[in-house]
Write a structure and sequence with these properties.
2 domains, Arc Repressor Mutant, subunit A, mainly alpha, 3 strands, three-stranded antiparallel sheet
Length: about 190
Amino acid sequence: MSVRHALLALLSDGPKYGLQLRNEFEARTGEVWPLNVGQVYQTLARLERDGLVVADDAGAEGPQRLYRVTRAGRRELEEWLVTPPDLSAPPRDELVMKVLVTTEIDGVDVRAMIQTHRRYLISVMQQWTRVKEDESAFDLHLALAVDAELFRLEALVRWLDAAEGRLKRHKVARRASVARPTARERETQ
């Protein structure tokens, strides 16, 4: 998530104070991504250093500074909005990593581990679904954020299903190759 670009987007509506930006960021993201006010001010300082925002009251510090986006900031925001994220490399997902590194460890029941994680993911999906049912009719931003999280969790469950199936097929193929003599072994018999 690019806090830098999110703040530029919020400032494109007009000048805002740092605390106001934090509150608006949390409201627009359905309050599912809390933002530390210190991070807001650090990001604003970087944006100001890069010439993407200016503070109307350059002499004041912290909450007394009213920030607005510059032309260069608008150009960067516009470029960010139309540039697809780089998804060419898989993210370092902890769950995926667990499965990948444990497939060959003796004594680890990868299938049981997958089942445990699948149950957990489904439980989290049920929690998000309840949040969505209770609140999302009143909050568009929350509904959109919850939908994104539900789709992400569903994709992980589907990946676990696929991984479990692949592990089973691999185990069966491995047993078959061990049990079947090679052509050279058949010739010597």
